[in-house]
Write a structure and sequence with these properties.
With 212 residues, the protein is of the alpha/beta class. Helices cover 17% and strands 25% of the residues. It has one domain.
């Protein structure tokens, strides 16, 4: 693994796994066209780039700039640091930093339907195992884009909505909530998001509130 001043590059057009046996720090990580699976094994991976965004996937924290597939397979790291557990009926709030980057750069051309960090298709198994109620993110569509297959558009949605009844929240602005959690070290809260009353509707703008 490159050192704290180096750039870790994952640019192979292939699927491969990285097993962590220590907790490294890199200046920056870039992800190419491949699919990278991180097995953290209760380790942590820190990217210290000033221009970094924050990403929480699979309940583990990473910091860096992400432009391709990313899957974190460990439930160590963030869960242990935040002293929380994920279980039945929970809403999982995922902050990738993509919206914050768009706001900072003033560029939204790729936000809706473009490349984005997010959950892999296999995340549906984790959602089913944990029996969570919803996943909410600051991205346009929750799952990673480009999608991992060209046979279906947004395949994760095809499973979690009709087969599981999972709810999802998209286009959430999470910076202030994340900063508050980091300040008081409380990462659990009561979440409510009442929708508009639309007969037969399957989606709606909401009024989300996190109450501690």
């Amino acid at each position: 693994m490159p050192g704290s001043a180096d750039n870790a590059r994952f640019d192979l057009d292939a699927a491969y796994s990285v097993l962590f046996i220590t907790s490294p720090t890199n200046q920056l990580a870039t992800f190419g066209n491949g699919t990278v699976s991180f097995d953290l094994g209760n380790q942590t991976y820190t990217l210290s780039s000033v221009a970094s965004t924050s990403l929480v996937v699979g309940a583990t924290n990473l910091f860096g700039t992400f432009d391709a597939h990313l899957n974190l397979t460990s439930e160590g790291g963030a869960l242990q640091d935040q002293n929380v557990s994920i279980g039945r009926g929970d809403f999982v709030i995922v902050r990738t930093g993509q919206m914050e980057r768009c706001l900072k750069e003033g560029e939204w051309g790729g936000y809706a339907g473009g490349d984005a960090p997010g959950v892999k298709f296999e995340n549906c198994y984790w959602c089913h195992e944990k029996e969570i109620a919803a996943i909410c993110t600051d991205t346009w569509g929750c799952e990673v884009r480009p999608n991992e297959t060209k046979d279906a558009n947004q395949p994760w949605h095809w499973v979690v909505i009709p087969a599981m009844g999972l709810c999802m929240g998209e286009i959430f602005y999470l910076k202030e909530l994340a900063e508050d959690c980091a300040k008081d070290k409380v990462y659990e809260f009561f979440f409510t998001g009442p929708p508009l009353i639309i007969t037969g509707g399957t989606g709606s703008p909401i009024n989300p509130q996190a109450i501690k």
